[in-house]
């Protein structure tokens, strides 16, 4: 088969298992010195975030640079280092990595034709108590306006680690989006979607850390569920290969509707319907917890089930 991976019967997901998955951000901090040591071109760039959590051996100290709270400088420095042949690994919270230095991403990386490995933390609203300044649901939509980006949205620390190792040796532009939410087990770190289950009444594409709750939400519905740990490039072949009814629901952990265009492009020759679930555009001014935001945006189990059921009926 091409375009997607298929779990065997003995691998079928059990999202209700009482498993505490490893934290994606903690795994990245533990892995970063090893990543840098493995490649003489690699250099880590931080903007204070994470600087106190990375244990840097003395022999790597000159390849871990903290520029302080200067996010435009962070990305500009990455562009300059990439022009000299280095491989920058750039890290901070999502809004500070994509929104604030957007012009530098466009010019110092894209226009210069160089690459970097960007690794965010905080997801859309992991830092719920910090409010709107630390919310990052617009990161993937913004990168969609730029050319040549690979975007990974791992749903488990094992997937994130595999994606980081695969991205480090290259010279392309890669974004790895880390979140505090996680699935109980890894479902796939490759570019192809994974078939979690098959059904006849439509297809639900669950992205990254939303897979387990999506499976729980549609447990008794006759739908195919696909898992995407990589969203750009979008796996159009995998979607088409598993399609039954041309009704598709996207469940994404960032701005709602972000990948609707990619589904429409994949099914351009078919009459189809698409529903894009995700974080709403309206600002929620009560901080609350990440779970409160999930419920408010309809991204908890009850909200996903309500939306999918209404759409398919």
The tally of helices reads 11
> Helical content, roughly?
25-40%
As a percent range, the share of strand residues is 15-25%
Structural class: alpha/beta
Specify the CATH homologous superfamily of the largest domain: Thiamin diphosphate (ThDP)-binding fold, Pyr/PP domains
Which strands sit side by side, in order, in the main sheet?
Answer: 3-2-4-5-7-6-11
Shape: globular
Overview of this protein structure:
This protein has 313 residues and is α/β, with parallel strands linked by helices. 32% of the residues lie in helices and 21% in strands. The protein has 11 helices and 13 strands. Mean pLDDT is 93; it is low at 1-12.
Short note summarizing the structure:
Residues 1-22 are annotated as: Disordered. It is built from 11 helices and 13 strands.
Key words describing this protein structure:
Rossmann fold; seven-stranded mixed β-sheet; 2 domains; globular; 313 residues; six-stranded mixed β-sheet; PDH/Transketolase; alpha/beta; 11 helices; single chain
Can you lay out the helices and strands and say which pair or pack?
Elements: E1 4-6, H1 24-38, E2 42-46, E3 64-66, H2 71-83, E4 87-93, H3 94-99, H4 102-111, E5 116-121, H5 139-143, E6 149-152, H6 157-167, E7 173-177, E8 193-197, E9 203-207, H7 211-217, E10 224-228, E11 230-232, H8 236-242, E12 247-255, H9 260-266, E13 273-279, H10 290-296, H11 301-312
Parallel strand pairs: 1-8, 2-3, 2-4, 4-5, 5-7, 6-7, 9-10, 9-12, 12-13
Antiparallel strand pairs: 6-11, 8-10
């Amino acid at each position: 088969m091409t375009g997607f991976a298929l779990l065997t019967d003995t691998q079928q997901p059990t999202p209700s298992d009482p498993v505490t998955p490893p934290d994606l951000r903690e795994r990245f901090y533990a892995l970063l010195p090893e990543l840098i040591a493995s490649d003489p071109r690699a250099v880590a760039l931080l903007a204070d975030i994470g600087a106190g959590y990375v244990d840097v051996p003395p022999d790597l100290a000159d390849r871990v640079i903290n520029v302080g709270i200067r996010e435009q400088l962070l990305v500009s420095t990455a562009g300059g280092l990439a022009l000299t042949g280095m491989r920058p690994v750039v890290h901070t919270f999502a809004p500070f990595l994509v929104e604030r230095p957007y012009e530098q991403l466009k010019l110092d990386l894209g226009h210069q034709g160089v690459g970097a490995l960007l690794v965010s933390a905080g997801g859309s609203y992991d830092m719920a108590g910090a409010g709107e300044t630390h919310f990052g649901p617009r990161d993937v939509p913004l990168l969609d306006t730029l050319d040549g980006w690979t975007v990974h949205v791992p749903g488990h620390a094992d997937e994130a680690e595999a994606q980081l190792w695969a991205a480090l040796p290259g010279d392309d532009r890669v974004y790895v989006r880390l979140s505090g939410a996680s699935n109980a087990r890894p479902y796939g770190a490759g570019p192809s979607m994974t078939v979690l289950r098959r059904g006849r009444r439509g297809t639900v594409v669950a992205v990254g850390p939303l897979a387990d709750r999506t499976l729980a939400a549609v447990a008794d519905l006759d739908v195919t569920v696909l898992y995407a740990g990589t969203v750009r490039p979008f796996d159009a072949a995998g979607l088409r290969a598993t399609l039954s009814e041309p009704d598709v629901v996207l469940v994404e952990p960032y701005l709602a509707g972000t990948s609707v265009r990619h589904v429409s492009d994949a099914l351009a020759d078919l009459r189809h319907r698409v529903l894009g679930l995700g974080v709403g555009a309206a600002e929620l001014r009560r901080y609350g917890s990440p779970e409160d935001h999930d419920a408010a945006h309809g991204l908890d189990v009850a909200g996903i089930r309500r939306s999918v059921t209404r759409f398919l009926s």
